[in-house]
Amino acid sequence: MRFFFLYTPCPDAGPAGIAEPRYAAAVLAAARKLDLKAERLAGPDVFRQLSELRGALVYDRTGPCPGGRRGDARRLRTALAAAGAFVIGRPLPDKWGQYVRLNRHPALRPHLPAQRRLDVPEDVFALGVPEVVVKPRAGAFGAGVVALRLVPPYRARGRDGRLRPVVRTFSDRAALFAFLAPALGRAIVQERLSLTDAGGEPFDLRLLVQWETAGGGERIRVDDYVRLGRPGDVASNLKLGGAALPPDAAARRLGRPELLSLRPALTRLARAVADVFSGDPGRIELGLDVGLDREGRLWLLEVNGKPGRAGLLQAYGPARYEKAAEALLRTALARFARSAGRPPEDGEARPTPPDEPIG
Hey, how many other C-beta atoms are within 10 angstroms of the C-beta on 74? Predict the structure, then answer.
């Protein structure tokens, strides 16, 4: 059986332009271990190799390059569907679409920061809070994420779309509104929370969620680690120079012992989010960005359909990283078998709902 690791070639990335070459290597090694004929495939090459994709398993890891161009995702998905490939790695709705769906879940609603679409400049003031964060509705790596202070003198601090630092001060609302103009209709406004340590170092929790085969069904696997940003940055993304630590090491560094007792609550949160976005056989992983404020409250900041894996490697080392890659492929193969019309064999997964709703 043929397996393709599909990626967007990025000029400033690693070998062959793969943004996470170590993860690509781990997935391809796992695929060969499972007796798949595995190879990597750049997104633009799909249109020249459609005949080879019929009946193949494709892991779609395409996405925007760090600080650079985006691939033509819609055209690519249409081509893959026309070719008859079984695709895992489905994208999620944009950030506003995610919020609308998550906000319908009564147990998740208390964990969502106040937010709204940025359609007109005045929307930044509509939440009635002194500071907000403006985020592109579609984006990654912290690109285009800017924190705004909404009391005079108005200030903006963050990163532009190419990950360059942004630090601006505005004398009046007119100047602030002119700064916001390019983002109108393309961004959301989110209440800014106190998500830093005592020294101003930003941090958040990243939950890596996978559907995995277990006992004839599927279960939700959750790996968690803490991302530490650089002082002065708005986000904690590793692409911005952040670091990933397991919770015990992060608790010592940040002086936040409560990080050691969050695992049950984080797992319930992850299962509830997975329940919201389940139902698509091609959706096999999620990344959750979760904030912990100074009062100990958890906030679901955003959800990613194609989560980066570098933090898992940095926090826990290669064994756990490679095990997760193999487990993901085993689940994909079980789903592929069901899609082909035969019942799962012993050891393959049958879908079951998350077994513990968030309380």
Answer: 9
